[in-house]
Amino acid sequence: MKKKDGLKQIVILAGGLATRLHPITITIPKSMVEVNGRPFFEYQIELCKKNGVKEIVMCVGHLWEQIRDYFGDGKKFGVKITYSVENEKLDTGGAIKLALPHLDEKFFVMYGDSFLDINWKKIAEFHAKSKADGLMTVYKNNWKLEPSRVLLDEKGYIKEYNKENPRREMKYMEYGLNILPKKIIGQVREKSFPISRYFDILMKKGHLVSFESKKRFYEIGCHDGLGTCEAHISQKPKKKKEKP
Q1: What is the mean pLDDT of each run of 10 residues along the chain (244 residues)?
Q2: 42: domain CATH number?
Q3: Domain for residue 197, yes or no?
Q4: Of 64, 150, 170, 224, which is most buried with the most CB atoms under 10 A?
Q5: pTM score of the predicted model
């Protein structure tokens, strides 16, 4: 069901091979990697519910059946999960394009290895007030955690996103929680392409606004990140584990 007020849907990009987490992810998908004894996707579901997002479109591929067998349609976890299955490598942008029939008019997008414990409702409200078609959350990284790839203009809109050749004047990085409009998803003709192609479309129209997070992000995309994320989550109040 389409929601006019607020954002109730998120697309989670979880179809990659997660090679940086080998040997763990040779036999399990990244979403099922255990963090303090629970599949990582459980923590993402909790973040969704905390922020009023109850509809999850999972873009899956590598060993995705394990996610389906554990989480099912999401009902037991208090959400609705729809699976969009990649039978070939589509990259992040292509995965969203494949999921087009399931998308609301506007929706959140998050990566399958991200733990982003910030106020999503505040971000959605900021986006609505901006009148921009899309939004990218950013973090003022100053080249500390990794290369900074985002350049903002004087009004806080994304001027450039350069993943291949970042420059020193770029102080910000993509935080990992974005908002995209359904109307642009079919505008890229290719089948396999990165999400940055959608950012490019919005930037050219002056319609990609930024929202700066003051909190750093956590992710499980590599072994170091997994350890840091696990330590961070360990410090948070524990919730009773929901059984599938």
Answers
A1: 67 92 94 95 96 97 96 97 95 97 97 95 96 96 86 95 90 95 96 96 96 92 93 74 48
A2: 3.90.550.10
A3: yes
A4: 150
A5: 0.91
